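Key idea: predict the complex, not the pieces.
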Amino acid sequence: MNEQELIQAARAGDLDSFNHLVLDYEGLAYNVALRLLGDPAAAEDATQDAFISAYRNLKRYRGGSFKAWLMRIVTNGCYDELRRQARKPIAALEGKSQDGEEIESPSWLSDPGESPEELAQRVELGEAIQDCLRRLELDFRTALVLVDVQGLDYAEAAAAMDKPLGTLKSRLARGRQRMQDCLRGFEELLPTRYRLSGEQSL
Amino acid sequence: MSNNISRRDMEVLSAYLDGELKGAERDKLELRLQSDPELNASLNELRNMKSLLRSSPQASPPRHFTLSEDMLAETSRSFWGSAFSLNLVSAVASVLLVVVLIGDIGGFAASRELTSLSAPAEAFADSEESTGVISPASGEAIKPQADEPDQELADDALADLQTEDAEANAAARSEDSEEDADLAAEAVSEPAADGVDQAAAEEGAAAESESSQDEFSEDAVGEVFQEPTASPLAPIAESAAEPNEKVQETRSDVQPILLLRVIEILLAAIALAFALFARRRRAI
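Result:
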């Protein structure tokens, strides 16, 4: 069965068909949740909740990209979790970035005195990327995760974020700019071909 | 370097990198890229970063997330904690609140409208009590807007026969007259019946019925303003006419209104509380 046939069968209550879809998308869903939340346990919960929610709300799926529809459920669940975390007392100490926009990352205070350069000495590249992602405002982070990390196209990412295409483009561009600024602090960790110099890679 | 690039240029470069820049805008950018090394450097830097992110390792899920019937049954037990159900409860409470409010305000308005009806009715009852007679003027219906109902009704009463039956019915009406205002709000006005004054009908004189004239007097002709329940209550009418009973009636009128207010406040609180909880559990 192709994807649409699996969806139709799942809509009719066939749990096995839905589980085929789960297996197809669980890696993507879990990685999106992990990038957005930055915590494996929270990402695991968010992924499971998203699939349960998707199954229960399958009748609301109106066609189009099932991947985008599913990612919307995942990102909404992650947003809810981040809001829940933000209500914890430590969230009250959240600060503002240089241009006055709120930094929503719960890890913002993990080590307030530590600059990106200092961090670079103790973290691996993957952690550096994750750290920079977490420093981004939530919408910028989501756009980068969906498009640059997971490879969704603009239409899918815009649908997953429930935003117009123009907004997605703008968020993505600004997110990339900030990501570049952050990653410059980890320049020495980057493989040569990924160095953020102005030279053409490869 | 890209540090100096404008936000607009960054958006254009970003879209160009993803193949999302079309037509004239793309041509324009490509021209600029040929002559602007800084813009070119920014594009390469952006391209490198995108490659870096795209090649970053994907985490393996710690387990499969397939669903089981047990899992679904378990989560369905927490249905009442879901945002959907919370929204549903909030919506139902809101609708009930609106219905109760409309009933409350509508009932209040109707009571005010019928004030002119109930006042003469009481006076009417009083005059009957004092004389022990009930009997409107022959061929005339009660006119609630009469300037001096006491005098008018008393005159009518004196002109008519005095019977025990009439006294009992008069007492019954005295009991019901206060309730008329409230009941009239719910009751549907009957079309003007034979002999009923049009003015009385327009005043919303609900529950008008043709009285059994013979019970009152052979001379008493026409309609009387009478609650349908008057006749069944007639046997207990005499005791109902006692002053103490009237006080109790007043209390019994106030209690439902207080109860209504309490229900309104409770419904508003439920709607607000569930809406707030639902916001915290936003559904997809």
